[in-house]
Amino acid sequence: MPDSPRPRLPDQVRTLLDDFDAHGADAARTAALLLLEAIEADGIVHVAGAGHSLAMVCETFYRAGGLAPVRPIWDPRVFPLDDAVRSTRAERQDGVGRAVAEAAAPAPPDVAVVFSTSGRNPYPVEIAQECAARNVPVIAVTSVPASRAASARTETSLADHAGVVLDTRVPPGDVVHPGGAPRTAAVSTILAAYAWSRVLADLDDLASARGTELPRWTSANVPGGDAVNQELLARYRHRVPELSAGT
C-alpha cells in the first residue's frame, strides 16, 4: 500500500487559521472590546515582544490601517538583528521585562498586548505581571500547546497573567513542515498577524456600531495620507515618544 502523501504546507497553514477562527473568535472580540474601551477613554495600547515576536510589535506600531495610540515597549537587548545570541540571553534574564514595564509606566485606562509564542521566558511574563499589577488589562497572543511543551524558565506562563488569551495553537517548536517530522516553515508570525488583524476587524465593527471614530494611521503612499498622519502625530507624540524620538 503506498504511503499517504505528506500534508502540504498551504493546507497546514489554512488548518491553523481555520482552527483559530473556530476557537479564538470569542477571545478576539473580547480583546477588541478591551481596546475600544481603552481608546474611548483616551488610553494607550502598550505592545511588547522579544526576539521574533518583535515582528508583531512592528506590525502593531505606526502601521497603515493600524491604531495610532500604540506604544512599543522593549529593551534593545531583546532585538536580534545586531546580536542574536544576546537577544536570547536577555529574554531569559530575570528583571529585564519588569524594568521595561516599569519604565513605560502603563496605567488605567491603558491596555497591554504581549506577544510570545512559548510564553515561558521571564521577559514577556514579567511585562504581563507588572502591567496586571498596575491594573492594566493584558491581552496575550501566545500558543497554549507551545507553552505547555516549552522549557519552564518561569513558574508561570504569559497566559497566566492575561485577562484575554488569543491562543494561536502553534505547535511546539513552531515549525510544521514536513508533516510528521517537521523541521522548517515556522508559522507563529503568520498566526499572530492573523489574530491581530482579526482583532482590528472586530474593533472596527464594534466602533462603527457605537459611532466611535478610531484614530488610525493611513498609508503615506495614498493621497491625503500624510495630512491625516500629521494630525495623529501631533495628538500622540508626547505620549508615544517612539513616534518622534530625537526630533
Explain this structure.
The protein has a single domain (24-239), classed as Glucose-6-phosphate isomerase like protein, domain 1 (Rossmann fold), CATH 3.40.50.10490. Helix content is 45%, strand content 11%. The chain is built from eight helices and seven strands; from the N terminus they run H-E-H-E-H-H-E-H-E-H-E-E-E-H-H. The strands form two sheets. Strands 2-1-3-4-5 form a five-stranded parallel beta sheet, sandwiched between helices. A two-stranded antiparallel ribbon has the order 6-7. Strand 1, helix 2 and strand 2 (70-72) form a beta-alpha-beta unit. The longest helix is centred in the first third of the chain and has 32 residues, at 9-40. The model has no long low-confidence stretch (mean pLDDT 94).
* Class derived from helix and strand content: alpha/beta
Secondary structure: number of strands: 7
H/E element order: HEHEHHEHEHEEEHH
The low-confidence runs, each spanning 5 or more residues with pLDDT under 50, are none
Summed up, the helix count is 8
Q: Using only CA atoms, what is the Rg? A: 18 Å
Second rung of CATH, namely the architecture: 3-Layer(aba) Sandwich
End-to-end Cα distance, whole Å, is: 69 Å
Percentage beta strand: 5-15%
Mean pLDDT: 94
Strand order of the largest sheet: 2-1-3-4-5
Count of separate structural domains: 1
| CATH fold assignment | Rossmann fold
Shape: globular
Major β-sheet profile: 5 strands, parallel
CATH superfamily annotation: Glucose-6-phosphate isomerase like protein, domain 1
Percent helix: 40-55%
CATH class reads Alpha Beta
